[in-house]
Amino acid sequence: MSVKLKKLNEQVIVLTGATSGIGLATARAAAEAGAKLVLAARDGDALDTLAHEMRQRGADVATVAADVGDPADVARIGKAAIDKFGRVDTWINDAGVSVFGKNEEVALEDMQRVMQTNLWGVVNGSLEAVRLLKAHGGGALINIGSEASDRSIPLQGTYSASKHAVKAFTESLRMEVEKDEAAISVTLIKPAGIDTPFAQHAKNYMKQEPTLPPPVYAPELVAKTILYAAENPERDLFVGGRAKAVSMGAQLMPRVLDKLMNATVFRQQQSDKPSSPNRRDALHDPVPEQELRQRGNLSPNPAETNLYTSLQFHSGATKTVLLGGALLAAAWAFTRKPGRKVWPA
What we know:
Layout: E1 12-16, H1 21-32, E2 36-41, H2 44-56, E3 61-65, H3 71-85, E4 90-93, E5 99-100, H4 108-135, E6 139-144, H5 157-179, E7 184-191, H6 198-201, E8 203-204, E9 208-210, H7 219-231, E10 236-239, H8 241-252, H9 254-268, E11 270-274, H10 307-311, H11 316-334
Parallel strand pairs: 1-2, 1-4, 2-3, 4-6, 5-8, 6-7, 7-10
Antiparallel strand pairs: 9-11
Helix pairs in contact: 1-7, 3-4, 4-5, 8-9, 8-11
């Protein structure tokens, strides 16, 4: 079945993980575009502050304090959308957490928390979304994966496992929805490293403060991609040429990529700043002072635009040719030596 999606200013959008990073950037951009919003996150006070900000600008917003790992909480999100607006047009599963450290050193309870949020949060949200979308005329389901959906990263083993699982679940659900001929677009977004408070929110087992390998992209670029998928049915979208290059490398030369990551990524995920013994993280509970921040200052110059990402918004043969050229540029940059100017894509 051909899926036709509404323009943003005609939509009711549900968004989890709304008070930080990619979710916060997406919420603000969607409100600016005129969408009606149902925003969910664990910190109710942060949600209230964000909703007040948006209402001051004329947005129509409902909020739900919820842990997406709890199916009952996710059901409350869906109920809030129906009670307030009568339908859902787009559901975005964005909430996510991580742990930095060697797999042998990370506590099992911390691994389980990552999976509860990143995988089961997506499962819970997706099933609720499909139920509501089928009942109210269809729409878009958008799940936030990662470049780690296609290629695991050392020192973030459980995060990588969760994002692999998100990809697998999303692909399976997409086929089932298509088989049912439901008017639902199911999209997986795969960002590269994004300049959000992700590293500060993560639990850390390393001696140094965690960070992300370059290049680091602006969260607004992910928000733009998400909202594009809310209006245009797409199967997969990458954010950052690096994400696509890593995905291709995982398919075509996995062992070479192993060696390249061993040589670079361990160092690139550890900053020059020692990790404090009193360091707070948002793995199990939100940290109020860390909320309502879009950026994490992981790079002095995060990429605000990206050629490969933008070219995905084209159509037809032109898109194929342009994406191929951008991918070659990204792959070339990915193999360049550290310390030299890289990452043109």
